[in-house]
Amino acid sequence: MTIALVTGGSRGLGKSMCVHLAAKGHDIILTYHTNRAEADDTVAQIERAGRKAVALQLDVSDSSTFAAFGDGVRKALTDTWQLERFDYLVNNAGIGTWTPFTDVTEEQFDRLMNIHFKGTFFLTQRLLPLMNDGGRILNISSGLARFSLPGYSAYASMKGGVEVLTRYLALELAPRKIAVNVLAPGAIATDFGGGTVRDNPEVNATIASQTSLGRVGLPDDIGGAVAAILSDDCRWLNGQRIEFSGGIHL
User: Which of 3.40.50.880, 3.40.50.720, 2.60.40.2890, 1.10.3720.10 would CATH assign to domain 3-244?
Assistant: First the structure.
C-alpha cells in the first residue's frame, strides 16, 4: 500500500489526480483551501473506489501554518493507517491569473510567489521527514514556462522557479532515493483562472487550433498522467520536466 498527498486535491486537476491515483491502488491525503464540501465529495469518490482518503485544510500561501499542517498529516497517518510516513507528494495547489506585465502589482506578485514557489519550497521541506525513503515528489508547472503568452509574466515566472527547484530537489534528495519530477500541463478545461478555457468557446477554439492534437486538455488527461508518472513503470524517471499539452505551440 502507498499513500499520496495531493495539495489542492478537492477540485479541478487535483481531484482528477486523486481519483486516478486511487484507481491505481493508492490511498490519498488531499488538501483543500476553503470548500470542505468539495473535499468531502472527493473523499467519498475515492472511498467508493475502495481506497482510504483524508481531507485536510491547508492555505499554501501561508508558510506559517505548515508546521501545524505537518502535525495534522502525522495524526492522519497514525489514526487512519497506523503509519508514520507517506510515499508520494504532489505539489498541485495553485491559482491562475491574467495581468499584463505593466499592471502587475506587488501584492499580486507576492501572492503568486507565496502560493506557487515559496509554498512548494517550504511545504516540501516541512513534509520531507514524513516521507518514506524511495518515495516520489511531483511538482506541477505549466506550459507557460516554455512558451510565452501576454499577461502571464508573473505566474509563469513562478512556475519557471518550480522547474529549477525540481532539478535541485532531484539532486539533493538522491541519497534518500526520492525521485522528483515536474509536470507541465497545457491549457485545461477547468474552472482554473475563472474557467475561461472551459467556458469561452472562442478561447477554447483558439487554443485547440494551436494544439497539434486539435483540442484543449481535459482534467483526466492530467490526472492520468500523474498516476502514470507515479507508477512503478516510471521509477527511473528523475529530475525531468514532462509537458502534457497535446502538442501546443510546437
Answer: 3.40.50.720
